[in-house]
Amino acid sequence: MSETLILVLLLVPSLIVAIVFHEVAHGWVALMLGDPTAKERKRLSLNPIRHVDPVGTLVVPGALALMGGPIFGWAKPVPVRQRRLNNPRFGMMAVAAAGPATNLLLALVGAVALGGYLAGGPYAEGSAMVVLRDGLTYFILINIFLALFNLLPIPPFDGSHIVEGLLPPSVARHYGKLRPLGMVLLLGLIALTWIAPELGVVERFVLPPVLWLQEVYFDLARSIAGQ
């Protein structure tokens, strides 16, 4: 039980930081490109209370952690009005890409910090320092996973906005009609992950690049530590 509690205490703060920065990045890029909706709704704050969705940020990732499944979640989406963007087509793609890009940047920060930890040698062997190492490891993994998971071309994920912007307008209109079904698709994906993870989209299309990119970040950490 104590190990499970420690795992949750490491995962939840990492997930909250990853999700909050992800959402705020959407809002800031939208503001820079002409849409102040997120600012008007006071969603450019790093205060987690403004972004946390009790189910998506706490219940779902906590349950997945206890079940040993992939850890992912979501926050309350930052409001973006495509028509208010200076260039709606390009702007929406840039806003969507900002979230995953921020998570990859956070993972980079985590890798640099982990490299500093590894450089500590014998000074990094205490129990408290080991918890710090595990926390940084989970922080890197969660940010990588959140970035790549959100790039799936399934509404309402960021990848769907990027794909919609790349498609010819006539095709994009048909693709956009899937958006109202986004929650159904999301719940179906979660159910498939629980019931048959070996058949799921996550296992087949997300985890392989996540594990590859994780090693890239870990190699960077080891390089910083001189190992």
Q: SSE layout and pairings?
A:
Layout: H1 2-32, H2 37-40, H3 54-67, H4 88-118, H5 127-150, H6 158-166, H7 169-176, H8 182-195, H9 201-224
Helix pairs in contact: 1-3, 1-4, 1-5, 4-5, 4-6, 4-9, 5-9, 6-7
Gross morphology: globular
What integer is the average pLDDT?
84
Number of strands: 0
Give the helix/strand class: mainly alpha
How many structural domains in the coordinates? Answer: 1
| Straight-line N-to-C gap | 34 Å
Family: Belongs to the peptidase M50B family.
Main location: membrane
Domain Peptidase M50: 134-168
Pfam family, one: Peptidase_M50
Notes on the protein architecture:
The protein has 227 residues and is mainly alpha-helical. It has one domain (2-224). 70% of the residues lie in helices and 0% in strands. It is built from 9 helices and no strands. It has helices at residues 2-32, 37-40, 54-67, 88-118, 127-150, 158-166, 169-176, 182-195, 201-224. Helix 1 (2-32) runs antiparallel to helix 3 (54-67) and helix 4 packs across helix 6 (158-166). The longest helix is centred in the first third of the chain and has 31 residues, at 2-32. The protein is globular and about 60 Å long. The model has no long low-confidence stretch (mean pLDDT 84).
